[in-house]
Amino acid sequence: MRHGLVFTNMSTVAHNPITAVLKFSRPKQILYMKLYVGNLPFKVTESAIRAHFEPYGAVTDVAIITDRESGRSRGFGFVTMETAEAGQAVIKALHDKPFEDRNLIINEARAREERPARPQGERRDFPPRRDNRDRRDNRGGRDRDFRSRR
Fold it and tell me: 65: closest CA among 56, 57, 74?
């Protein structure tokens, strides 16, 4: 590689050098950094987290994860910082430091792991019944049907 230029397709260059495509290779720049924030107090608000993190850089987004059924905080969340340098500064300054009487756990967020799909509909992995009763004919007992015929 000379002067940051890379030929993408050498066969194109050999056949038609005028239409050869040149690329400039530049290092990839990370524009933002998503942080996992754990051990959050259950009553904390997004504005309180934003105010706590902003002295170290611009905060793009704050998300507190809540329970689906109760709506209560689950004790962790995610903060997106505008630059990777700001994210590293937050980790160095605030990891394992007290915030509203709890020590925060701050790490770079990882991609969510793929989980196997849950089965839809009826589960078929029950063991077979040991007796020979048929569930479809169980309409409340023999006595009831016997009396109605008399």
Answer: 74
What are the start-end ranges of the H helices in 16-138? 46-53, 84-94
Could you give the C-alpha distances from 113 to 109, 110, 116, in angstroms and in order? Answer: 12, 9, 10
As a whole number of angstroms, the distance between CA 94 and CA 66 comes to 23
| Token pair listed for 70 | 């109760």
Q: What is the pLDDT of residues 67-119, one digit of tens each?
A: 999 999 999 999 999 999 999 999 999 999 999 999 999 999 998 888 888 77
Homologous superfamily in CATH for domain 33-108: RRM (RNA recognition motif) domain (3.30.70.330)
Say whether pTM exceeds 0.90. Answer: no
pLDDT of residue 136: 54
* Torsion angle in degrees (nearest 10) through CA of 20, 25, 28, 31: -80
Q: Which two tokens stand for residue 42?
A: 């259950």
Please report, for the chain, the start and end positions of each structural domain, with discontinuous segments joined by +.
33-108
